[in-house]
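Q: Here's a chain of 123 amino acids. Please give me its 3D structure as tokens.
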Amino acid sequence: QVRLTESGGGSVETGGSLRLACEAFESVYHNCMAWFRQAPGKERDWVAFFRIDDGNIAYADSVKDRFTISRDSQKKTIILQMSNLKPEDTAMYYCATDPRWACGRSQGQYRTWGQGTRVIVSS
């Protein structure tokens, strides 16, 4: 059973935008909802998190001021709006959740993962 489903990936040119969505089943709609990404041949890196309890948000420096994380509470969906995309943003993007109050930046903290959605940014 798929409990986290990402969507919205695709191919765009440099400077373009994409909107990724992560829909969670009730059982995994936890306090910490995060996005990670993994470029080909590289480690999986944290991108952003949204803390459901108080709306606290944090971004990696590499995406700050270009990406926006938000939620649609009715749909139990976390959105990642990506603007001014660069070739270095090319990666598989994963949604992850964790029930703890303190949201972290390490993939080891997150218990539930989606299968990913691919983003390709061409120069």
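Q: Can you summarize the key feature?
A: Residues 8 and 20 are 4 Å apart (CA to CA).
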